[in-house]
């Protein structure tokens, strides 16, 4: 495993398991498989409704807590709940602290939620703070209001959409980009690109492993999701080779080709209206 040092000195494993769209049973099994394969980072969220399952996997894994990096996300419906939102998340996970706490969507009173997260950070309930799906202007708004600047921003990022402008904006703050959809939302066309097929043959890797390695060399964190133990293990087998400058330059030519997600006003309004009962999860 390789690590990224965040702007507050915390070291984060560069790769983790994402549990988006997994049922509790699936998330528990996938997390156990990931921990057995040597993963040290598991990512969940209030809205995934699988925090308890991830907590169960951690509890039964036998891996010492201090060797794990656990990240979760607060949903907008609890942005104004204060410390109760953080404590509820910790209770569902069965943990005394999380390593990364993230605001999931850029709607609602996210500035109030950020102040709560700063309080949790100072209380030792959280080791690092992040934003998810925030556009640059709203990231700037949070940074302006924040006493503790974000350690991480998680956004759609892949070779078709490398987030060059956002990387440049975040660089002065030392804020890391974390890529969701690191493999292009399962887009087979991405993996079939010659710029990945050629190095895959050269290094004896899959195209997916080459893409994940590209992310790592770009300085990003990655949280690929899979329910297949073989794929989970394969996704972590990316630390024994390195792409050349020439290969990285060829991959860079794909940037600007495609995105998979657009945060429409209607979608954001829908997120704000969603008020799940997080404690009802299995």
UniProtKB/TrEMBL annotation:
Alphabetical keyword list: NADP, Oxidoreductase
Marked site positions, Lowers pKa of active site Tyr: 73
Gene3D superfamilies: NADP-dependent oxidoreductase domain
InterPro entries: AKR, Aldo/ket_reductase_CS, NAD(P)_OxRdtase_dom_sf, NADP_OxRdtase_dom
Listed name of the protein: Aldo/keto reductase
Recorded GO MF terms: oxidoreductase activity, acting on the CH-OH group of donors, NAD or NADP as acceptor
Keyword Acyltransferase in annotation: no
A Pfam family hit: Aldo_ket_red
Active site annotation, chain numbering: 48
Domain NADP-dependent oxidoreductase, first and last residues per copy: 22-254
